[in-house]
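Supplementary Note 3. Input sequence used for the single-chain structure prediction.
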Amino acid sequence: MLTLGWSHRASSSEVAVLEFAASLVGSGAVQLQQIIQAVDGEEFRLLVRALEEAAYGRR
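The predicted structure, written as discrete structure tokens, is reproduced below.
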């Protein structure tokens, strides 16, 4: 995972969420296993919801 600059002050889950969001807009690829391991249950649900909105639009 990216660990440059400001990310030294961010938790691993915060970095994971930001990397996931960047991947949704085409700014980079992520390893989903790393993301899943870094986030808690609530963050995971938010990521799934963001992925659904990216794929199908807001419902």
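The CA atoms of residues 16 and 35 lie 5 Å apart. The chain has a mean pLDDT of 81.
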